[in-house]
Every structure is written in structure tokens, then in C-alpha cells.
Amino acid sequence: MSAEQMDELLSLLGPELTRQSTNYRAAIEPKQRLAVALRYLASGDSLVSLAFSYCLGCSTVTNSVHLVCAAIEKKMMERFLPRPTEETWKEVAQGFWEKWNFPNCLGAIDGKHIVIQAPPRSGSQYFNYKKTFSIVLLALVDADYRFRVIQVGDFGRTSDGGVYAGSDLGKGMEAGTLHVPTSTSLPGAAHLGEMPFVMVGDAAFPLKPYLMRPYPGKNLTHQKRILNYRLSRARMVVENAFGILASRWRIFHRRINLHPENVDKLVVAACILHNFLLAPSENQRLLYEEEEQGRHMAPVRNMGGNRASREACNVREAFCTFFNSPEGSVSWQDRMV
Question: Cα separation of 64 and 32, whole Å?
Fold first, then answer.
């Protein structure tokens, strides 16, 4: 983080971090509170070791982390992670077509487990298939690795379709209340008719008219393998976004020892800071560092059932036809399947 970025953060958050000094104790400066919280996110150091490093009490360090995360959500959410509008969706779709050759795309979606210390008296609620305790981060990412929609806080054991189906994104897409643009023809392919705007996900997600997943199985036709390649290529942006997030904020490679409610706020704050700091010149370096470490955030294995409607199958077939046509193909795709 540059000095200029640190100063901008301080100007945005400073008033929320300022506390009154008393006769017994001088209040901690906002800049120190911010530094402590950012180091906790970036280093993954324990709260105890941070308290020792900054010569502060452990409760003071914990309180600083809570204050900074709450301030980031309050002061920066609207600017750096706003609710998408129809114009926003159109911009995202244009970006996917220009950069990843996938038209009518609202974003790439995926879910990851955030490992936490087992909360007291929580039973198996947070216990996941990796045999750790976790909450789930569900995210929709644009063509530039920017988080556009996030949902945090589902129990780690909720990997049976409940995470996506119960999310505001899942319910909003199903109900048609998220200001998604109306269907339009694919570039140069009016003969295929009007096509809906869609999200792209992996095999963990259900196939919906507005959510595309790959064709299952191994003995696929060449045309279906092309669709899977093009979809996978667009979907990789969400994997890269998570990679950049965890490379910059290494707390995501540790077991977070906070109450789940405070972990939720920490994850939201980290995603907002990700958008605030996002720079094309740094993305490849951060992805390389993440690959070098050989550690990745655990995926959520199952986001919904495999039963798909005829309408959803028809939409996927139309995309398959488009990607295998002169209007929608790219020169290198045959070599990649």
C-alpha cells in the first residue's frame, strides 16, 4: 500500500476511529489503529503477537481490528462495493466480452470457506467437509477481478445448495429483482434470437437460465468441449480474484480467532479493500506469489442440485452454438480442447 493510499484510507476512516482521551489513558491515534488492523489482515499474525509488536494490550488490538473493519464497511461500501445497477451490469458484460470473449456475462461466481476458530457451543454448524470450522464467502466478480456482489456468513456445513439458493444474489436472480438488463442478441448472431444475461460458475452450481455451468462428463462432443473451455476461461477470473485477495491479505491462510460475527465484518472489509487497492500492474505479481505458496482457499463443493430446466439447457445450447460459429469462435480454441 502506497503512502498516498494509506493517507486516503486515514482520511476516510479517521473520524470513525477517533476516541476521547481520559484522565487515566491517552486514546490510541487513528493511524495506529489502522496500522494494527491492516497488519493483522496482511500478515496473519496472531492478536497476541501483534499486541507484543505494538506494545498494546491484546484487548486493545482486538478492539482496533473490530473498529477498523466496521469503519471500512460503513464508510467505503457504497463507493467501492455498491449495489449493481442496470448500467453496472452492462459495463460488466462489456468487459467480459472484450477481455474474456464471453458475451452477456454478468460475472463469474464462486464460494470459498474462511477457516475460523471453533465457536463455543456451536456444535457442528460451522464444521465443513475439510474437517475444519468455517464460514462461507460467496462472490460475483467482474472481468477485472473486482468484487461486484458478496455474501458472507453462511455456516461451513451449508454446502448442500443452501448457500447460493439462500443468498440475496440467488433469490434476486430467481425473482428478477436485481435490475439485470433485458435479453439481447449475442454479437453478430441475431439469428440465435435474444439471449439472457448470465453468470458463469463451475460444476458446483446449478444450471439456470441466468447461470451457466459446464457440460458434465468426459465423453463430450468437440462442440461441448469448446463451450466448457470458453466458460472455464471466463470463470477463472473469480479464482484469480480469490487468489489476489488471499495473497494480499494472508489472514485467509490462517485460522481466524474471532467471533463469527466479527469474522463476517473482517471478510467484508477485506473485499472492500481489495477493490480499493486493485491495480492491473500488481495482479500478476500477487497471483504468482499465491501460486508459489501453494495454498488456496477451500472451495464450496456443492451450491445446488443438478436438475436443470429445459429453458436453462436451451440457453446453454445456444451459447454452445455461438462459440462454435464464425461469429463467436476465437482462433485458438480448437487447440485448447
Answer: 9
